[in-house]
Amino acid sequence: KRRDKSTHVDANEVAKTRAHASGMINLFAAKAKQEKEAAERQANGGSTSRQSSGEVRVAKDISELALPRTMAIAFPNGRDDLLNFTITIRPDEGYYRGGTFNFSFTVPPLYPHEPPKVRCAHKVYHPNIDLEGNVCLNILREDWNPVLSISSVIFGLLLLFTDPNPDDPLNKEAAEDLARTPRNFEINVRRSMAGGYVGSHSYSPVTR
């Protein structure tokens, strides 16, 4: 006998709904806190010594970072601005070994309820990074949750260089190249990293 889909209640769906509702409540609370902090800043002439909840969490994340020798962090605006920083990745294996790639991180005040915004500073021939520097990483989109951290994102970026994914592309040309002719993909990656052309697109050198 066919079950009536309109009356069937899936326990997993109920759990998901409850989790979603809880997440929304936390998000509303975070937004209310942010608005309160903004009002305090305005009352104090635009400044306050209190850190936002996002800044507190970012400071914790950064203090706990344990980066390998192939990665580095820098603060272009100084250590007083923890919401804007740069991550440098120098892969020592895979298609992109020997390259130096910089990513800008902009952390929203509602972090960790919202993910950081990440862009690659270089034009890269990569299935998961488009020519404007946008990054296709699931934890920066639908799979983000407040349990994740800056470290999670950084090591997710490293994984893109050691194991690029042609099945979730932003650059479809590069993805098809990798899926169909891995050797040709490798040649194009090396050419782009050296500052050459791939198709009609020119690239700046990123090799050490």
UniProtKB/TrEMBL annotation:
Signal peptide segment: none
Region called Disordered, residue ranges: 32-55
Pfam families: UQ_con
Keywords: ATP-binding, Nucleotide-binding, Transferase, Ubl conjugation pathway
SMART domains: UBCc
Domain UBC core: 53-198
List of catalytic residues: 136 (glycyl thioester intermediate)
Biological role: Accepts the ubiquitin-like protein NEDD8/RUB1 from the ECR1-AXR1 E1 complex and catalyzes its covalent attachment to other proteins.
Protein family membership: Belongs to the ubiquitin-conjugating enzyme family.
Protein name: UBC core domain-containing protein
Natural source organism: Ostreococcus mediterraneus
